[in-house]
Amino acid sequence: MWPGNKIPAPWANTTEPNKLIQFLETTLKERNKQGSFHVTQAILTPTVNTVAKGLVWGLRDYLVERNLPVIMSWVQTQRPGKGGVNIITSDFVELTDFANIVIKLNNVLLSESECKPR
Fold first, then answer.
1. Under 8 Å CB-to-CB from 31, ≥6 apart: which residues?
2. Is the pLDDT reported for residue 38 higher than 70?
3. Residues 90 and 71: beta-carbon distance below 8 Å
4. In Å, what is the CA distance from 85 to each residue of 32, 79, 96?
5. Which helix (H) or strand (E) segment is 74 a member of?
6. Phi/psi at 5 (nearest 5 deg)?
7. What is the pTM of this model?
């Protein structure tokens, strides 16, 4: 229905949650100027070094589990819809309450639309 250039999915390419969040904030602001769909990739990207350490400690444990709470806290504070997030992706969503967080964001949109006069 929409060409790929109308659904940008910028990739932070970082292992650090604070850099990821800074990147997500910046790209959301840029998206607001474009007025398009936007995929918010709340995903950390392992480096070769991270993968090597992950072989010893487990990549999921080493990279994801210790950083996921920070990322999910950021997701919970977002405003959905126009001017905010509209598509969010994350790894290992089964480790968190990701689905309910996204549903709550969608419910915000529903309640806003019900309050508007028709």
1. 8, 38
2. yes
3. yes
4. 10, 6, 19
5. helix 68-76
6. -70, -10
7. 0.82
